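ok trying again, last paste got cut off:
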Amino acid sequence: MIARFIYWELILRKSGFRQLAKRTRPERFRREAMRFRALALRMGGVMIKVGQFLSSRLDVLPPEITDTLADLQDEVPAENFEDIRQLAEHELGAPLMENSNGLMRVRWPLHHWDRYIEPD
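nice, full thing came through this time. structure:
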């Protein structure tokens, strides 16, 4: 991805192919964003978060990239709860239900406003 960018945006532009690089830029950026999106969905986790961050940077990245990555904001496949439960139990060292009392004592955000569900 980086090598293609360097080739098109630096080498070709400096060697007299500026118009070709400029004319094909929107489609190239769209293709690269689609490749990154597919990679992020395949890898999950942090890569999806990186894609979500990049899609929100309208002030820095061109619309061909941000529009393509915008799908990562809400169309991400759900994780299997059984996998999450097993990981949580492994890290807690006990079944999840044994540790649920500790979870219930946490102030949980109700919405993005400053309102919380208070523990009982």
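cool. The helical segments are 2-14, 18-43, 45-55, 63-69, 81-92, 100-104. The longest helix spans residues 18-43.
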